[in-house]
Write a structure and sequence with these properties.
- By secondary structure, the chain is mainly β.
- The protein has a single domain, classed as Metal Binding Protein, Guanine Nucleotide Exchange Factor, Chain A (Beta Complex), CATH 2.170.150.70.
- The protein is built from two helices and eleven strands; from the N terminus they run E-E-E-H-E-E-E-E-E-E-E-E-H.
- The chain has an eight-stranded mixed β-sheet. A three-stranded antiparallel β-sheet has the order 1-2-5, with no helix packed on it.
- The N and C termini lie far apart (41 Å).
- The structure holds zinc ion (ZN) (2 copies).
- The site of one zinc ion has 9 residues, from loops.
Amino acid sequence: MSELSLVKGSCLCGAVKIATASINHHVAACHCSICRKWGGGALLGVECDNGVSFEGTENIGVYQSSEWAERGFCNKCGTHLFYRLKENHHYYIPVGIFDSKLDLVFDLQVFIEEKPAYYSFANETKNMTGEELFAMLTPPSSQE
Ligand SMILES: [Zn+2]
Ligand SMILES: [Zn+2]
């Protein structure tokens, strides 16, 4: 068996710890108004499938941010822990909470039409509107 290295992280106060072996090394920024209100700015996140585990789950607060997704945070220090799709428990994790040195590429920005004019990232990325993102995420079977 090949060794799967676990990527680990934690919240600011250490009450919640996170580990995953399924991190996607592509970082995406979300400029939507909910992310910006949640964190005060664009959310920089990495996609992880459902292979995410937490320690200190009693310290995790969960906010239902939409019909399809919820957002987790440490209820001791307020660190944002995840954006999770309710249907398949797919996770998007704020990349700053990982402690391990990761080989990451920032190459996607979504909800680009909601990005305010007062900032812009200099990285060359693919940019998608919210509409384009949802069209990509909707499985073809649901169009039947
Ligand atoms: Zn904490
Ligand atoms: Zn967003």
